Amino acid sequence: MNKHLLVALPVVAIALAGCQAAAGTVATGHTVAATSQPPTQPQPQPSGPSRGSPSIMIVGDSITQGSAGDYTWQFRLYEHLLADGYTPRMVGPYHSLYNNVTKTEGDLSYADPDFPHSNDAYWGMTLLREKNAIGGIVATYRPDYLLVLLGLDDLFWYGVSQPEMRANLLSFIDAARAARPHLRILLGLIPPDIHTESSRSFAASVARYNQTIVTTAARLSTARSPIAVVRDGTGLNVAADTWDGTHLNANGEVRIAAAFADVLAARFHLGRAYPTPFPVLPTGPLVHPRLTATAAGTGKVKLSWTLVPGANDYYVFVKDLTQGNLAFRKLTWPLSPAKEPWTVSLLVSGDKYVFQLQACKGTDCNAFSNAVTITAR
C-alpha cells in the first residue's frame, strides 16, 4: 500500500495496489484482479514436515507477491528464520513477481533472487476465489504453516459484503484443514493503506473484516490446528513504508515480515521475535541506470538509458558548466520508460552540459545513473 495520494492516482501510471482494472484504467492504490486467471503454475514440489526445516506457504495478493525489483516480505521472513538456525522450505504454486511497468506476470527481477520464493500469492488474488482453490493447493504442497494476508481486493474492488467475507473465510479455513488436519494457520489483519486513510467508509469496512478475522480465529483455533492472528498493520506508516499507497517498499516488507515472525515465535515457538529497532533501509530502485548522451542537432542532446526493474519514472538532472552552474537542476516532469530515448532541446550551442538520471518507483526515488558530459552543438 503507498504513500501519497499523488502516487495512487496520476503520478505513477503503474498498477498501484493491484494491477489495472479490467477496463484498462489505472488502479488507485489497491491490488486488483487484473486477469481472470492466475499466472501459470509451475510443477509442484511436495515436501514433508521437518522440525529444522518447516514447510511454509504464504498466501496473499500483490502486497505479498511484490513487483519488479522488490525483495518481498517473504524474503525478509526467510532471512530472519535462516538467521535463527532454520532452513525453511517455502512452498506453493507461484514463484515470480508482477512487472508493474509492463503490467505482466512472470517477472524474476528480485532484488535478491537467492532465496526460495515459491508461494501462493499473485497480483489480484481474492479470498472469494482462493477459498475454492486452497484445499487442492494445500494437499499438493503440504505446508506445516499457512501464512495468510488476504481480503483487501475483495473489499475494495468487488465490494464483498461482510457476511460474505465471513463465510468465505470459514470456507477457506475448512478447505485448508480438510487437506491438512494439523495445519498451523496465521491470519494477517489487512494493513492500512491510502484508501483507509482517505475514506472513512472503507476504513470501517476493513476494520469490520479485521474484527471478523480476530473472532473467527478465536472460535476455530484448536490444539490440533491452531489459528493465530497477526497484527501486521501495527506500526505500518503508509507514507513511509509503501511506494504507491498500497504496496510495500523495503521498510514495509520488514514490518510485515516482523509481525509474522513475532507470532511464529510467540505462538508456535518457531524462531525468535524479529530484532528491533527495525533497520531503516533504502527505498526505491536499487539498480543504477546506465546513461549515454549524443548530439542530436543544434541545441539538442539525445539521452538514452538502461531501464531499471520496477522503475516507472526517471527524473533528469542537468547543469551547464559553461554558465558556471555547479549544482544539478532537476527537471520538473519525470520521464516514463516509454520516453527512452529522450531528446533535450533549447540548449545553448557551445555550452558544456552534465546530465544525470534518477530512477523512481512510485514516490520512492533512489538509484542515480552515471553523469555524462557533452557539449551542445
Descriptive report:
The chain is 29% helix and 19% strand. The chain has 377 residues and is α/β, with parallel strands linked by helices. The model is unreliable at 1-36 and 40-50 (pLDDT under 50). It has helices at 5-11, 62-65, 73-83, 127-141, 152-156, 162-179, 194-198, 200-220, 238-241, 250-268; strands at residues 55-60, 89-90, 97-99, 104-107, 120-121, 145-149, 184-188, 227-230, 291-295, 301-305, 313-320, 329-330, 342-344, 352-361, 364-368, 372-375. The radius of gyration is 23 Å and the shape is elongated. The strands form four sheets. Strands 1, 2, 5, 6, 7 and 8 form a six-stranded parallel sheet that branches. The protein is built from ten helices and 16 strands. Helix 6 (162-179) packs parallel to helix 8 (200-220). Strand 14 (352-361) and strand 15 form a beta hairpin. The chain starts with a helix and ends with a strand.
- Sequence stretches where pLDDT stays below 50 over 5 or more residues: 1-36, 40-50
The beta-strand count equals: 16
Report the sheet-strand fraction.
15-25%
Question: What general form does the structure show?
Answer: elongated
Percent range for helical residues?
A: 25-40%
Mean pLDDT equals: 89
Sequence of secondary-structure elements: HEHHEEEEHEHHEHHEHHEEEEEEEE
Q: Supply Rg.
A: 23 Å
Put simply, the count of helices is 10
N- to C-terminal separation? 46 Å
Q: Helix/strand/pairing class, anyone?
A: alpha/beta
Please summarize the sheet with the most strands.
6 strands, parallel
Short account of what is shown:
With 377 residues, this protein is α/β, with parallel strands linked by helices. It has helices spanning 5-11, 62-65, 73-83, 127-141, 152-156, 162-179, 194-198, 200-220, 238-241, 250-268; strands at 55-60, 89-90, 97-99, 104-107, 120-121, 145-149, 184-188, 227-230, 291-295, 301-305, 313-320, 329-330, 342-344, 352-361, 364-368, 372-375.
